[in-house]
Amino acid sequence: MREYKGRGPRRKKPGRVAMGLWSIAGVMGGGLLFAAPAQAAAPTDCPPTYACLWGDTAFKTGGATASVIKLKQYIPALRPFSYYGTSRTGHDSASSVFNNGSTDTAYFFKNENHGGAWFKKSTNDGDSDFTNGSPPGSFNDSLDSVYFATLFVPIGG
Question: What confidence tier does 27 reach under pLDDT thresholds 50, 70, 90?
Fold first, then answer.
């Protein structure tokens, strides 16, 4: 039999094992503990710097997300605008909106020329279903104009 001339089996220090376990736990679960709050994801057919309207809920018009009205400026009346690929106008027909702008809050009004009740959406914010009472005030199928904060801010806005 061979004679052993070493110091004995190498032992890990207790702190190393604990640190290793904490490191693994941090990598695996840390993302859940330290994740930043998720922002609303912009619908794919609403490009950056635009506010968009859809005629139905869930950011769709007639079942298609591409059937959208894209706005990048003040719109005193939605009547002349149609959802892309359709003959359906924006006048009193929107059921979901998204503001994918980079700096401006978008204001949505029930009447033309910024008249009547209104609600606002900050950048990277939207509402996928007006029929659920959000925004308040029965805005489903009743929008008629859209303004941006740099062009117009309503009283109380």
Answer: very low
Which stretches within the chain are classed as H helix?
Answer: 14-34
Rounded-to-integer distance, Cα 92 and Cα 141, Å: 5
Decide: 137 and 94 in contact? Cβ < 8 Å: no
Task: Please tell me the predicted confidence (pLDDT) of residue 5.
Answer: 52
- CA distances, 72 to each of 2, 16, 69, 113, 137 (Å): 85, 58, 10, 16, 25
pTM: 0.70
User: Residue 113 is part of a domain; what is its CATH number?
Assistant: 2.60.20.10
Q: Total domain count for the chain?
A: 1
Token pair belonging to 132: 């659920």
Confidence of residue 102 (pLDDT cuts 50, 70, 90): confident
* b/e map 35-65, b = 16+ CB within 10 Å: eeeeeeebbebbeeebbbbbbbeebbbeebe
What is the torsional sign of CA 61, 71, 52, 130? Answer: negative
Residue 31 has pLDDT above 70, yes or no: no
